[in-house]
Amino acid sequence: MIRPATAADEEAIRACAMAAYQRYVAAIGRKPAPMLADFAAQIAAGDIEVAEDETTGTLQGFIVSFPRGDHMFLENVAVHPEAAGQGIGKALIARCESEARRRGLGSVQLYTNVKMVENLSIYPRLGYVETGRRHEDGFDRVYFEKPLG
Fold first, then answer.
1. The pLDDT value given to residue 71
2. Which residues make Cβ contacts (< 8 Å) with residue 56, sequence separation at least 6?
């Protein structure tokens, strides 16, 4: 089940981010940006949705997205390693795309770290096209966009 996050979810969201991104710390040389996010502020802004197990209520993943100009910006999607491979990330991304369409936005845009090589192949399979590469805030980022026409 995917639903809006509440303040009560903050600790589980943070734990999910830590578990999902910990494997990248050595490759990047520091914690990836999603491990440092202000989840309380993002929850308060209504920018986070969570996926939870319908039987146990356990948080399995989350997504952070919000409108930015004429597009939806997908800032973060994370799935707890114990729930990986079940289509949770794909469902969260589809929810983001659906919300963008509902709001009349033309595309979804995102970036990932160049060291997160799995993402460089996952996003194109979901219809995202690479639009650029930049070094920002000490990270090497690859930008993607999916038109929603």
1. 97
2. none
148 burial class (0-12, 13-18, 19+ CB within 10 angstroms)?
middle
**Residue ranges for the chain with pLDDT beneath 70:** none
| Residue 55: strand, helix, or coil | coil
The string of pLDDT tens digits covering residues 44-74 is: 999 999 999 999 999 999 999 999 999 999 9
- CATH number (domain holding residue 119): 3.40.630.30
| Structural domain boundaries, residue 101 | 2-147
Domains in the chain, number? 1
C-alpha to C-alpha distance for 109 and 107, rounded to whole angstroms = 6
